[in-house]
């Protein structure tokens, strides 16, 4: 005889209920995976146990993207519903969905920080690791890009500062050269002015050798005077200016005469 139809009602035995939940959960996850592979469908499965433990499955796209698509579709459907009591009921139904999504996001954040990893399966851990690796690659790529841009900016500033330094060095050299030329020009002008205004040095003539007798002045006039003395002899006397002929010459002239 085959198995009879199982009556769908709550299993009262706690152990049997837990065993049945584990088996059915595994089968449900397997069926969700099969339909996603066979039919190329995006599947998101969320299961909470009686203890509040979460079990979920999603296709290659993340759970968040599927839930966002679901919310967009639900929002568009709500826009088509006329206002009234039905609209209020839809909002009351939407609140638990939003709370569940917030709880999922908070749990994902905790998983990204390495918390509450025990409930995750091997596939979920691999998917989480892949997401973290992708995020790390993006972060490192952005960091390297910023470092590269910063280095290029620093090289650019260094080049500008080097050019300014070269310009200032050239200006300093030109100023020093002009100051040196100006000092040399002033020194030359000062030397020329001092040589032009200085009177020539004239050496005084050497004095003639000293003579014991006053010099004889050529061309001086003298007078010869003749007279007779008491003996009847004629005497000749030469008279010269007193300061023009020395006495020895006068005696010589007198003797000659």
From TrEMBL:
<dbReference type="GO" id="GO:0003700">
    <property type="term" value="F:DNA-binding transcription factor activity"/>
</dbReference>
<keyword id="KW-0539">Nucleus</keyword>
<keyword id="KW-0175">Coiled coil</keyword>
<dbReference type="InterPro" id="IPR050142">
    <property type="entry name" value="MADS-box/MEF2_TF"/>
</dbReference>
<feature type="domain" description="MADS-box">
    <location>
        <begin position="1"/>
        <end position="61"/>
    </location>
</feature>
<dbReference type="GO" id="GO:0046983">
    <property type="term" value="F:protein dimerization activity"/>
</dbReference>
<keyword id="KW-0805">Transcription regulation</keyword>
<keyword id="KW-0238">DNA-binding</keyword>
<dbReference type="InterPro" id="IPR036879">
    <property type="entry name" value="TF_MADSbox_sf"/>
</dbReference>
<dbReference type="InterPro" id="IPR002100">
    <property type="entry name" value="TF_MADSbox"/>
</dbReference>
<protein>
    <submittedName>
        <fullName>Truncated transcription factor CAULIFLOWER A-like</fullName>
    </submittedName>
</protein>
<dbReference type="GO" id="GO:0045944">
    <property type="term" value="P:positive regulation of transcription by RNA polymerase II"/>
</dbReference>
<dbReference type="GO" id="GO:0000977">
    <property type="term" value="F:RNA polymerase II transcription regulatory region sequence-specific DNA binding"/>
</dbReference>
<keyword id="KW-0804">Transcription</keyword>
<feature type="coiled-coil region">
    <location>
        <begin position="125"/>
        <end position="178"/>
    </location>
</feature>
<dbReference type="InterPro" id="IPR033896">
    <property type="entry name" value="MEF2-like_N"/>
</dbReference>
<dbReference type="GO" id="GO:0005634">
    <property type="term" value="C:nucleus"/>
</dbReference>
<dbReference type="InterPro" id="IPR002487">
    <property type="entry name" value="TF_Kbox"/>
</dbReference>
<feature type="domain" description="K-box">
    <location>
        <begin position="88"/>
        <end position="178"/>
    </location>
</feature>
<dbReference type="Pfam" id="PF00319">
    <property type="entry name" value="SRF-TF"/>
</dbReference>
<dbReference type="Pfam" id="PF01486">
    <property type="entry name" value="K-box"/>
</dbReference>
